[in-house]
Amino acid sequence: MHSIDSILKGCLKNKRKDQKLLYDLYSPVLYGICIRYAKNHQDAQDILQEGFIKIFENLHTYKRKGSFEGWMKRIIINTALKKYKENISHLSVELNENESEYLEQTIYNDNIEIHDLINKVQNLPTQYRIVFNMYAIEGYSHKEIGENLGISETTSRTNYLRARNILREKLEQQEKVFAEYMMIR
Amino acid sequence: MNRNYNFEKNIRNKLRGYNPNPPSDVWDQVEANLHSKKRKHWKGYVKYAAMVAILIISAWAVYDFVLLDKTSQQYAIEESTKITPKVESSIKKEHPAQIEKDIKDKQALNKEFKIAEHIKETEKKHKILDDDDEIDKSYQTSFEKTEIQKEKGYQYAEFKTKKEALKLDTRAPERLNVDLSENIELANIVKKTVAESKEYYSLSDLAYSDEFVYYEEDEKRWSFSANLSPQYSFRINSSNPEELVRAKTIFEQNEEHLINYNFGLNVKYNLNDRFEIESGINYVRMGQSIRNIIAYTYESPYGQPLHDGQSAMTSMGLIIFNDPSLYFVDNSSERVKMRGEPVDTDDVLLETQSDRLNQHLGFINTPIVARYCIYDRNSKIQIKGGLGFNFMVLNNVVLHKDDIKNSIGHTSLMRNWNVSLSAGTALIVPLGKNINFHLEPTANLFVTSLSQGRSYNVYPFGISVNAGLSMPF
Questions:
Q1: Structural domains of chain A, count
Q2: A-B interface: how many C-beta pairs under 8 angstroms?
Q3: Engineering a disulfide at B333: which of A68, B68, B125, B250 sits with its beta carbon 3.0 to 4.6 angstroms away?
Q4: Cβ contacts (< 8 Å) between B244 and chain A: which residues?
Q5: Which residues of chain A have pLDDT under 50?
Q6: Does the B222-292+360-472 domain belong in CATH 3.90.78.10?
Q7: Domain end (from A87, A112, A141)
């Protein structure tokens, strides 16, 4: 059993075997992030590939203060943000009255399938998808998101709420039809 | 607010826990980009493959244009002496007399050339030494000249044919004996000419006579071909209802292409210089590979089978498993269903058999294909396209374990006959007088959905490089 320390030492010496071990160890977690940020699986693979190359090439800059996994996740997220940055709009968008009401009616749904969720997240407009990921999953504040993406805090908040409403609506609709479809015998 | 919190928490937990394995080729690409790039990904070889392809095509072009010089000269002569209806009518309108003369000249030149060629062939056949290489060369070259030089070419032709005639005359007795048995056509011509002119005769005179029609060979319009090819086969999914996007996603993630094969016998009919039509009978294997449905053998403590029957939904249709000694589990989604109540398998000893299922479909394909020749020298290049009618004759699902294959079911909810479109190119290289080699990259796509009774459409396709032989008759 290899320890993470010995793997990192090997990676710093550019040992291909250790690089592969590191990749095997963390690629599922990081690929999960890539899929959430990307608009399709091909993009996700591109982000993962580019991200891992950055990780290996910049490993010497990791100071071993804080989580190594967290350090890698930031590189992957930054790679994803860079890929989609030109799709980020700086214009502030206001919620209309109906959207606000709809938000309050959001219900708890425990039966959401992961594939549905991934698919729907990927199909969100790029800006909504990125804000949704950063806020709901990574736990960034709207202020931090605004600074990262160069948009206002209000825009970030509005993007997030719209993303959530779209997701909820699509998931409910799809769950119902899919259940009927898979019953064909 | 609590409801919103739960919704977010639920989504967050699910997404954070989603840690799928990336496709294996991602590591290949990462590795290829790192440092010394010791191992190149297959994409890196594409440029080399392209270079090799260019080299092969260039070599073939050199062979066809330069090395087969005589053929190209013959081609040039035939082309220059060809009288199209359009040219003929325009000439008749503007310069009737001139054109009529020109047409006669061209016809004469063409016939003379053919006579000279025929004489050469005869000499070769009877091993008569040809000491007229220089004359022969200038004679052929002269036929390549432009319109202005044709008169000179005609003089050469006349000189040549007269000379040949003289040679024929001096050797007439033995030639006649041989030619009568082996080349009846030429022998008849010579015999007739000798009979008509006892002192002196010229084959160039003969060229203007109607007797020379003997010389025209009937073109073989039919040909028979046999071909064989490995085939990349897969399918296109079309789930227009947005509600089926999830099903499509599951199928896309868990289904892969198969390498199959096809073979067949076809007959072609040559409509004219450019067009051919083709039909025949072919066997085409298509299908796909299903991933992440694991087959287990088991020892049931209940002393009875774990199920009354299982099935699995795939993009191509519903697989019905027919082996009760196997227990199938889908470890990625909900594709596997079971008749009756689900069984608790906690107490059951399961032994993994395989996670590789292949859906095989075999079709008898009857095509109607049109071919158009875009290049015709020594070799031919054609583009082709057409329709095919496909009747399903094989439907099975095969479980792979190591090198052992077991048929464990079939696929239902499929249409038994389908229409497909095909398109491709063909390179035809003559190997001999009556045999040609074909190389034909071809794509086939079903245009009727294979699925039946479902709101989900699937269109199989195949990409192949058919190699084969054809024989005119």
A1: 2
A2: 132
A3: B250
A4: 177-178, 181
A5: 91-110, 185
A6: no
A7: A87
Which amino acid would we find at residue B455? S
Per residue in B63-106, pLDDT tens?
766 655 444 445 554 555 455 566 556 556 665 666 666 667 66
ipTM score for this prediction? 0.79
**A103 in the same domain as A75:** no
Q: Which structural domain, as residue segments, surrounds residue A124?
A: 97-181
Q: Which of A69, A106, A171, A180 to mutate to test the interface with B (most CBs of B within 10 A)?
A: A106
Q: Which amino acid, residue A54?
A: K
Among chain B residues, the shortest Cα distance to A49 is held by B30
Put simply, whether B247 touches A (Cβ < 8 Å) is yes
CA A109 to mean position of chain CA atoms: 21
Which residues does chain B have with pLDDT short of 50? 1-3, 36-41, 69-73, 77, 81, 127-131, 134-135, 138-139, 141-150, 152-160, 162-163, 165-181, 196-217
CB contact (8 A) between residue A112 and residue B10: yes
CA distance B26 to chain A (A): 6
